[in-house]
Amino acid sequence: MDRNFRGTTSTCVPGEFVHRADPADIIPTGWTQLAENRFSVSARWPAEHPFFSPVAGDRHDPVLVAETIRQATMLVAHAEFGVPVEDQFVMWGLHYTADAEALAVDGLSSDVTVDVICSDLDSRRGGLRNLRTTMVLTRDGRHLATGGAAARSTSALAYRRVRGERMAALGRPVPLIPGVTPQLVGREHAKDVVLGPGTRPGQWQLRINTQHPTLFRRPNDHIPGMVLLEAARQAATLTLGSGAYLPTAMDVSFSRYAELDSPCWIETESLPGAAPGTETVRVTGLQDGRPVFLSTLTSPSRDLTAAGAGLGSRLAG
């Protein structure tokens, strides 16, 4: 894609650039173009939020890192690469690794700086189709996390053609199945539970609450990726048996759309820790016998979490 470096700066982020209607859900606060495909995004993590509440006692929810990466990717795509806001924007992969010590809620500001590098740009007919982002997040000048995403944009017309009859599911009510006990998945309220009982140990059914103000921010014809991310986190929490679960690293890939009209089964497997003092869980989403997503989540071991010490030094690498 031919673009001229303009050195653009903005301190106002429209909600349509990050696909969020509620101002409380908009994490980026501005952006600056540093080079042709490099940007600095300023962000603010909410001190209080009905969904992204502190976990493990006194840590920012690490899924805020994933949401920051998601929103920063969309912001740059729309604001700097000209992707129309009416296009469908799909994340096919997302990953992050966070410093657990730097996630502390107290003692640090809520302002986060995100250094964004865009690569693997693929444009057709003058419009951006695919891009990959690599990000470094800092807070008060201190390293907070690294991560990135792989994303694709599809025109509204092409999306309707690809989805076909599935578009009829847009806004259709979905029966809300019973959920597991909120405290078992690190949640306080039943509305935030995205897992229901399965048919065997290590398996749960995805619980779809289309009225959830954060996870279903607008009517959709498929299950949003953030619902699947939260399902992976809650399933890993149940697998390790710790309500104080702190997923300081996550890597997720999506293989197909998760549909609203068929049960989606969430299955887990405990793996050897990626580093000493850590625990890793692999989470798979299956629908109609086919994989929907695959995710691995790594956390400090339960002993370290309970002790409240040594978290960051073991995971910073």
TrEMBL record:
Residues 17-149, 184-296 form the A-factor biosynthesis hotdog domain. Pfam families: AfsA. It comes from the Bacteria. Signal peptide: none annotated. NCBIfam families: ScbA_BarX_GamBu. This is ScbA/BarX family gamma-butyrolactone biosynthesis protein. It comes from Streptomyces litmocidini.
